[in-house]
Amino acid sequence: MSGLPIDFKFRKERRKVGKERNVAVWGPLNPPLELGIRGTHVAVDWDICTGCGICAEICPQRLYEWVQTPNHPTSERKPLPAREPECVQCHRCETKCPVQAIRIVVPGPTGWRRAMDPLGFLQMGGGIVYGALYGPALGLMVLFWAGWLMLAIGVPLFLSIAIYFKKAGRPVEGKSIADTTVLVDTGTYALVRHPQTLGAILMMSASILISQHWLIAILGITVSAWNYRWVVKEEKGLLVKFGDEYKDYMQRVPRMNLLIGIIRLLKRRDRRR
Fold first, then answer.
1. Which SS3 state, helix, strand or coil, does residue 181 take?
2. What does the alpha-carbon distance between residue 77 and residue 52 come to, in Å, rounded to a whole number?
3. DSSP-derived secondary structure for 87-112
4. Which of 29, 124, 221, 224 is the most buried (most CB within 10 A)?
5. ∠81-84-90 over CA atoms, to 5°?
6. Distance between CA atoms of 273 and 268, rounded to whole angstroms?
7. 31-68, pLDDT tens digit by residue?
8. Residue 147: which of 126, 131, 162, 158 has the closest Cα?
């Protein structure tokens, strides 16, 4: 109604006043003239929305359902992000909305993921500290020093988003650097498609070798397997988000096999000479 886009800070500046079909409603709410915002991670400002239907048409996950809104000034029907948790963050609806009524926010860890992240850091720190203070439980020094080497490789990979997304990424205004709108394929991303996850797995593996403790091994293997499964799921969203560009990237760069990634990169550089 005002011509302004959806409030980027609505979760901080507005109050949650209820739910509609299990979707959060953010005020102010004064129907039929003021309807507020629907959704948290897929948020639609119903007071701005004109009901054009573009979001519902282009959403690959079919998240939206129509809700009738009689006597509202901008339109008498609005799209409700009824299947909000199924969003793959392709941002199509956000970028194509002609009145900028939609805001996609990548959610933080939820469910088991919320537990796995701190468990991973606990495993890394616990194993490294244990090994450094008391030495390897099995006394295998070759594996102990191999663990420190693996740790040195894993740390820069783990920091890839902070390093390369800051340089080459293009996040939407007000969003984190991880939420880039362009495909980053330079630096460590030219070696593997998920260097941060690979770095975390290498660091957890290093913790196992340094400590050589059974509890650290069980934690590391469990969290590493969970992280790998998460990457497979994440790639489905990246395919939707970047389309053919990501398909080409998948052909050029392996998911997390660092050795193959190095060999392929060297071959590509040889062909360019």
1. coil
2. 9
3. -----HHHHH-TT--EEE------HH
4. 124
5. 95
6. 9
7. 999 999 999 999 999 999 999 999 999 998 899 999 99
8. 131
